[in-house]
Amino acid sequence: LPALWxxxxxxxxxxxxxxxxEVRRAETEYLLKKMGLADSHExxxxxxxxxxDPKARGAELKKRLAACDGKGYEAVLLMYGLCxxxxxxxxxxxxSVLVVPRVHDCISVYLGSARRYLEEHAAEAGTYxxxxxxxAAAPDGDILxxxxxxxGLGIEGGDGGRLSAAAMRAQFVE
Length: 174
Prior knowledge:
Layout: H1 2-5, E1 16-21, H2 25-34, E2 41-46, H3 54-68, E3 75-78, E4 97-99, H4 106-111, H5 114-123, H6 132-137, H7 143-146, H8 165-172
Parallel strand pairs: 1-2, 1-3, 3-4
């Protein structure tokens, strides 16, 4: 993540608005605190359910950006990539700069760059990435369906059945 966080200089007193999916909350808050930036960033968390509806996610991002107009933020930092084109056509607030990572989706952000994602994909094509936040925020039931991913990836538990969100949380989060 450092490559994507490097545009924020330490010790500044200006305010930044950060918009991200609630799935990224724990990691984002941890890094802001560790870097001493928690006081200079206001975070706006969008619900995970918007992951499966890019048009609704784009509309919500536009609404949240409009709410930033005139607030005096130095920049609005989105922690979304192209994400099914949900960030296409976004307009920054009139008094701020809009920063969006140049990546396809949040997995590239987690790995540090689009290049790193492509390297991992070339080495292990077909790998499906779950973050701790995705597992923690997923509603009970099929974890793949909760992210709008359908049910065809074949993630199975030890008994051959599909892993539920609750089972994955117990194994990887709690």
